[in-house]
Amino acid sequence: MSDIQIGMSKRARRTYSLDDIALVPTRRTRDASDVDTSWQIDAFKFDTPLIGAPMDSVTSPATAIALGKLGGLGVLNLEGLWTRYEDPQPYLNEITAMPVDNPIAATCRMQEIYAEPIKPELITARLSEIRESGVIVAGSLTPQNIQEHYETVVKAGVDIFVIRGTTVSAQHVSQNREPLDLKKFIYELDVPVIVGGVAGYTPALHLMRTGAAGVLVGFGGGSAMTTRRGLGIHAAMATAISDVVQARSDYLDESGGRYVHVIADGGQGRSGDIVKSLALGADAAMIGAPLARAEEAPGRGLYWGNEAHSPEYPRGVRTSLEVVGPLEEVLYGPSHHVDGTSNIVGGIKRAMATCGYTDLKSFQRSEVTLIPYGG
Amino acid sequence: MSDIQIGMSKRARRTYSLDDIALVPTRRTRDASDVDTSWQIDAFKFDTPLIGAPMDSVTSPATAIALGKLGGLGVLNLEGLWTRYEDPQPYLNEITAMPVDNPIAATCRMQEIYAEPIKPELITARLSEIRESGVIVAGSLTPQNIQEHYETVVKAGVDIFVIRGTTVSAQHVSQNREPLDLKKFIYELDVPVIVGGVAGYTPALHLMRTGAAGVLVGFGGGSAMTTRRGLGIHAAMATAISDVVQARSDYLDESGGRYVHVIADGGQGRSGDIVKSLALGADAAMIGAPLARAEEAPGRGLYWGNEAHSPEYPRGVRTSLEVVGPLEEVLYGPSHHVDGTSNIVGGIKRAMATCGYTDLKSFQRSEVTLIPYGG
Amino acid sequence: MSDIQIGMSKRARRTYSLDDIALVPTRRTRDASDVDTSWQIDAFKFDTPLIGAPMDSVTSPATAIALGKLGGLGVLNLEGLWTRYEDPQPYLNEITAMPVDNPIAATCRMQEIYAEPIKPELITARLSEIRESGVIVAGSLTPQNIQEHYETVVKAGVDIFVIRGTTVSAQHVSQNREPLDLKKFIYELDVPVIVGGVAGYTPALHLMRTGAAGVLVGFGGGSAMTTRRGLGIHAAMATAISDVVQARSDYLDESGGRYVHVIADGGQGRSGDIVKSLALGADAAMIGAPLARAEEAPGRGLYWGNEAHSPEYPRGVRTSLEVVGPLEEVLYGPSHHVDGTSNIVGGIKRAMATCGYTDLKSFQRSEVTLIPYGG
Amino acid sequence: MSDIQIGMSKRARRTYSLDDIALVPTRRTRDASDVDTSWQIDAFKFDTPLIGAPMDSVTSPATAIALGKLGGLGVLNLEGLWTRYEDPQPYLNEITAMPVDNPIAATCRMQEIYAEPIKPELITARLSEIRESGVIVAGSLTPQNIQEHYETVVKAGVDIFVIRGTTVSAQHVSQNREPLDLKKFIYELDVPVIVGGVAGYTPALHLMRTGAAGVLVGFGGGSAMTTRRGLGIHAAMATAISDVVQARSDYLDESGGRYVHVIADGGQGRSGDIVKSLALGADAAMIGAPLARAEEAPGRGLYWGNEAHSPEYPRGVRTSLEVVGPLEEVLYGPSHHVDGTSNIVGGIKRAMATCGYTDLKSFQRSEVTLIPYGG
């Protein structure tokens, strides 16, 4: 695989982003109305393979409920404003009101706002609110905070537990503290766990062996560029998804039949990106920006990730997005936008139909091409 | 062909756009005045291999007539303003008057304007107007609307029937309705049929087997970028043309001599692009933007495609183009523009002569090179 | 060589521009003061391998003389303003006064100004003026005008005769007129002939067989971009030079010792570009823009080529360049510019010394690398 | 290695910049707090592998001391303003006050300011000032000035002697003067010598054989772009570092155990770039821009290199950088910047931990990938 000689002492493998590839129709076309985009993880079935990212600019209890009612899954960030403040609205107002052209001041203020401790009772309250609506309940913690808060989460009741950090490995080593034993943790938990980000065949295979129901592919979503600039770390998404899909297949073999779901997480700002993730083999897509463009989004047209307010090493900035319309229109149209930001499910169905597929599993076999850069 | 490893579970083929290639002169040069650009499809012979795209911003009955008189072929969109409105001018005026910097409002209004039903009597009237001028008559329908309107078209009389959608396959499968049997349709029709868009060897070969006289290579013309962003689908034109040219050659063999014309449709904004299409083996070029730059163009310097007003999933925006001069000057000069937008036929002839060719068929054997991106 | 599959029916060779490559120093360095940049063609020896392009914005009789006195060779365009007008200054004034943001009006006016016929007596006068200064005299004609004017040129007396067009082949074929028999023409002429542009091994080899003393590599100089857009024709300079250098070597063999000089012509806007041409094997560089930046340049900071006023198919626009300083400073410094536009000879010497070479012939063996695009 | 055919007569090797690569985490992650970034050259040990470049905009005696106290090494340029002027502050004020949009005037004035001769007594005074602070003392001379000034330097006392030019070879050849015999010079000197820039395996191996304790990889730092434009010379950093690392390894073998340190010098504007250099095998990074962004930096937010005021052939311009905060914050945070300009050591530690490493030597074995350009 490492077939490129960077210099005499180092080889590297060439990797590809979603922008580098495109789908090609085959000799058969279908009706978009015949396409079924449903998928299932554990006992939970969804009409559409879209998962709302646990980011405060994307998912509030209210939008988690709305997304659930529209056939997707909203994941609440259990370390965000809703579990730090009884009434997060003034803080959201403040964050969304800060001008985007002064990122340093905004980063400082966000670091202050997010310094407020997480309140277990708010975790309980937020999850209950979602559960009462009748939709499937999912919340996320970072690996760093799991040991402190997972019992609260489990007691409050979640259907799906998400462990999400920039990079999560199955084998975290620490000299000063007992790290989380992910395998034991997942084994003892009653609910299915989705865990990531991860990229690469071997790290993903190890994560699958922990018993996770799903893995998140990608590092950092909205902060990918600053992660690359600051840390030199980057996972080109097309390659990352395809590698983890191979791990899924090999783990299915080795485990005698456990199918771990692969969820693309990052770099999917438009419906065409989601289409490509699914064609590369992802079972579902965790998305941020597309949902942050909905009228109901807590970020009100601003978009930021969880790394943006890290106290030591913040990454990612608030980005201004165009508000497209109500969430339902964002997902199902009718669209008046021509850039893949509206009628996302319609776009997925149309793409699948044009390429001759009517279900997600067979769509994973799609032929893709490498297109001229920016082409 | 799929020799690039995107990731461990997916391979892809590298594809090329027209911008990626250039022609190289050989050891012999010719006089441009000795070059013959004529071509023939079925019984119809043309001085120049240029076909006006069936788009409302490009081809009106009047410009179809003008292009025919100047040696090309104009194809009227039979689902556009001219068949929806007795007098389309006020709607054209309105569309061309909307500012380009508010694309959403423009898309909404275009969706409303194009919601007006197609009137069979206007199909008849527009085709008659073109026929009366004495030029070759061609009109286009999308696959979706053929069954409803083709009898009107046939009765009104066309010399060449064009079936044009973003992607047209020979084998459309539908669960809820009887899809168009393209082979049977073409067989029973009396006039030659040009059908597309298509890309790829196999889809093109199947389309040729339906009995089509010509196939259109490419997806969506002016909306290619938004098709890529929204649907993740893209056909890099140089590769697409070259693949379909191979299908032409293999079908010629398999059919014992049927030559199906390959018509490049999309991405040919300047004369150099058309030159490249022809050098890659296309028999003719269906063009939009170059003709939309003519003073007579109905779009008056604005350019939009048929996907721009799709009610469910619009793609492509109105683009502002520089008005270059009268149609005759656009085609035959004299040119005062240095960017390949004027004296297009002169440019084609000069390029062919510089590379040592005097007819289109031998020009298809041209040597091409891959040039540095953007180079 | 054609190892890239553009599509199933067409292969292509990958080509490289000067921007794609860079030099790498070896284990030895030299003093710049030890470097000798002299070169010789036929009986004529020059201190520096720089030839002023025959363009009205670059070379007047006065700057041809100045360049000659500074160790280079100025070539007067014998079809430019100086041979069309007794006093060209008002026309130069007019051309340089037209705003660059209205290229169409400028193209029209230049087409008018250059419609004035060439006057044989002015050819004679201009060449005499240069000859009287004592420098080596060189003038250029296009292939189209040679038969009409060459006797005037020969009678007026030139040391080096230049035949320069966008593309010049050894075998021009015409149905309506007797084309120039280049081989016979050169054989009968008493003075050495430099001819081009050409690109590619075979066309260059044929041109060398005509008896030319030198060939110009490249198409169109300042109009390369518009030639690509309008005609689809492009020669990536690094590849073109290297191919023609191979032809030089093979022709040296086949002819039993005739060394035809290879002169890079086009795309050399900065000293680094000239350095790369020489490292790729060129014997000298014909340059336009670098000299157009001299205070004495007739274009007064504006730069345009001979294709810019073509009556039928103009290509290239007037470009605004920064005026750097007197011609002597442009060539020999001292430099106060950091972008390779000043002290060009100093830059060449410094580059050669850094790479360990002290003469041009051995510098042609330099190692080059492919650098990241735009890198 | 030279596997790309530029043209028929020239092959080239493809090279890569730091922007072309990225790190990929492995299956194991670590705690950032467990990471040790210390390194040692000769008898000198440092907490952090960061060396301040000897440039007047980056390193003054005061910032050399500050950097030393913070665990790094500051190298004073012994040919800069501090050794030309008793009080350099007025000249620094003048240089930093000149507008960046008039680079020619600034270059001229800098050429004047730097025309002032170097004063041996100021060399002595500046080095003494640093020594008195208790930090490790390092000063740099160019190869051209070593013979004149090295005795002053040695007498004043330095711990580490740096010889730094754009390109330094072990075998400089001159016809008119006795060049520096680097091997003899280093052998006779009592202190360890770091020498460069160099790129390429063979030149680096020869430089290692001179007895140098370390080599600087790269040409020209802040002036790399203008070196490429003016001289056509460029070293893509990722390839350059990897090649010199191979030379280090082979020289270790051939010398029976001498480990020459490889120090990346150039193109490392953000922490991610430094991370990549270390992952490619560099032992340390010489940095300019990141330190020029500190509040204490003498350039006060402006950044220029030593080539910017070359009397004959200036290269590089003053660039305006954002002032990030105090030097300590630039190195150790806490960061409020999301672009890799603050908490640089924190960024390095976090990257190493994420990739599963806790010391620099094993980090050199990191896996890297080639990422899509600009990706």
From TrEMBL, chains A, B, C, D:
GO BP, sorted A to Z: GTP biosynthetic process
InterPro entries given in the database record: Aldolase_TIM, IMP_DH, IMP_DH-rel2, IMP_DH_GMPRt
Keywords in alphabetical order: NAD, Oxidoreductase
Oxidoreductase keyword on record: yes
Signal peptide segment: none
Pfam families for the chain: IMPDH (PF00478)
Statement: the UniProt record of this protein carries the keyword Oxidoreductase: yes
Domain called IMP dehydrogenase/GMP reductase: residue spans: 16-303
GO molecular function, one term: IMP dehydrogenase activity
Top-rank taxon, per record: Bacteria
NCBIfam families in the cross-refs: IMP_DH_rel_2
Family indicated by similarity: Belongs to the IMPDH/GMPR family.
Protein name (record): GuaB3 family IMP dehydrogenase-related protein
